[in-house]
Amino acid sequence: MKNKNKQCSFFPSIFSLILLLSGLPASAGTAPAVPFAVLAQYPHRSHAFTEGLELVDGLLYESSGLYRQSFITAMPLEAGGDALFFEMLPGSVFGEGMTVFKDRIYVLTWKEQRALVYDRKTRKLIREFTYEGEGWGLTHDDKHLIMSNGSDKLLYLDPDDGKVVRTVAVTEDGKPVTQLNELELVDKRILANVWRTDTIVVIDPKTGVVTGRIELDKLYPHSMRSPAADVMNGIAYDPADKTLLVTGKLWPTVYRLRLTKPLP
């Protein structure tokens, strides 16, 4: 989140090199590392300050932040695909996490305490609702939106009015895990980027306990990053082949990962 910088397009041309990486020991706590393989790389709009990433019906939806530069977009994954739509958000808001729930696109804002709700087909802004505090990451289950706000809490929201119906505290070894950012629900677990790290934590949504860590510091090493590249952020799940798509803010690449062990 929470740093600041632009529009282009996502033209996925698969990079076929398969690289197997073992998850590194967790830098904090004792949750086991989840090993993975890198299956492919796709070009990513390197001026996108990625806040939300989600794959729905073969389209990759993305929200991007920064004041007067925030947008949402959707594009097909096949090579050479043009963006199906590109919608600028109001210049007064800093776009944050996003999720597609039924026929609506929900987008959080950072400090404005406003969630913007768009019709998925028309891409028109149809309503808003408010919430307390900051907006960071967003995903959903069958009934509720699930939101992070930079704390150790996951907030379950009513998708109609944004009211909090449940709060889950996230812990590892009994200690709070804070700065939870972009979220994705995968196989009855919530995956969350931890801001300012290259770690995705695996969370049991019933208990809030971190059951695993996906350590991605070797995916795009800091020694290879351009000065413009910001933190890792963005997780999408592809149910067709049970892989993950991950990227970061102002990163030039989206990576397709296959977890080589089930989520703990």
Summary tags:
264 residues; 0% helix; mainly beta; Methylamine Dehydrogenase, Chain H; five-stranded antiparallel β-sheet; 47% strand; four-stranded antiparallel β-sheet; globular
Molecular structure report:
The chain contains no helices and 23 strands. The strands form 6 sheets. It has a 5-stranded antiparallel β-sheet, with no helix packed on it. A 4-stranded antiparallel β-sheet has the order 3-4-5-6, with no helix packed on it. The protein is 0% helix and 47% strand. The protein is globular and about 45 Å long. Strand 9 (114-119) and strand 10 form a beta hairpin. It is an all-beta fold. The protein has strands at residues 19-21, 36-43, 50-56, 59-64, 71-76, 85-88, 95-101, 104-109, 114-119, 125-130, 138-140, 145-148, 153-157, 164-169, 171-172, 175-176, 180-186, 189-194, 199-203, 210-215, 232-238, 243-248, 253-259.
Task: Describe the structure concisely for a colleague.
The protein is mostly beta strands and 264 residues long.
Measured distance between first and last alpha carbons: 27 Å
Name the strands of the widest sheet in spatial order. 1-2-23-22-21
CATH topology of the domain at 19-24 and 35-170 and 218-257: Methylamine Dehydrogenase, Chain H
Largest sheet: 5 strands, antiparallel
Element string (H = helix, E = strand) = EEEEEEEEEEEEEEEEEEEEEEE
- The total of beta strands comes to 23
Residue-averaged pLDDT: 88
Q: What's the shape?
A: globular
Number of discrete helical segments:
0
Outline the low-pLDDT stretches: 4-27
CATH superfamily of the domain at 19-24 and 35-170 and 218-257: YVTN repeat-like/Quinoprotein amine dehydrogenase
